[in-house]
Design goal:
Layout lengths: L1 H35 L9 E3 L4 E6 L5 E6 L5 E2 L5 E8 L2 E10 L2 E4 L10 E7 L7 E6 L20
Antiparallel strand pairs: 1-2, 2-3, 3-4, 3-7, 5-6, 5-8, 6-7, 8-9
Bound molecules: zinc ion.
Zinc ion binds next to loops.
């Protein structure tokens, strides 16, 4: 009686151990997968690798809204961050500046006409900090796969 109880306990703990290993392996797999995928901004914009993440989003009137998100994509109100966008447009280099608007940053002016030109988005943790620069092309066409604008596409290419 005692022996069979011991065997049962042993079997039960073995099972628990195996189940735990399986769950841990699955979790590790998930994380590896996430690290390889681009994360998309929750509002359909481009998520920049800042801390917290800045989402760059072009509105219909071509103004730009920057919102901030934690790693798990929870909204974070803008703090001391400042953003400047340098647009290398056909008419020349144009600097777009931002104002705080509620929990976000709003561009003071729209992006220059056309698309297909290069942008540098400079994000500073505060006004006198060194900027983190993000260079990408302004491509407003819609991606066939993820249905997001190309500048915010999250597909693997
Ligand atoms: Zn895509």
């Amino acid at each position: 009686m005692k022996n069979s109880f011991r065997i049962l306990t042993l079997a039960a703990s073995l099972c628990a151990g195996l189940a735990f290993t399986a769950v841990a392996a699955e979790r590790a797999g998930d994380q590896a997968e996430h690290a390889h995928k681009h994360k998309g901004g929750p509002n359909g914009g481009r998520l920049l690798e800042t801390e917290p993440h800045a989402e760059f989003f072009v509105e219909k009137d071509r103004s730009v809204t920057i919102r901030f998100f934690s790693d798990d994509l929870k909204p974070v109100a803008v703090g001391e961050q400042t953003v400047t966008v340098l647009a290398d447009a056909k008419e020349g280099k144009i600097k777009v500046e931002f104002d705080k608007s509620g929990d976000a940053l709003k561009s003071k002016s729209p992006l220059p006409a056309g698309d297909g030109y290069n942008l540098v988005v400079q994000v500073r943790a505060k006004s006198d900090a060194k900027p983190q620069n993000f260079r990408f092309k302004l491509d407003l066409a819609t991606c066939n796969e993820c249905k997001r604008p190309e500048y915010a596409c999250i597909c693997e290419h």
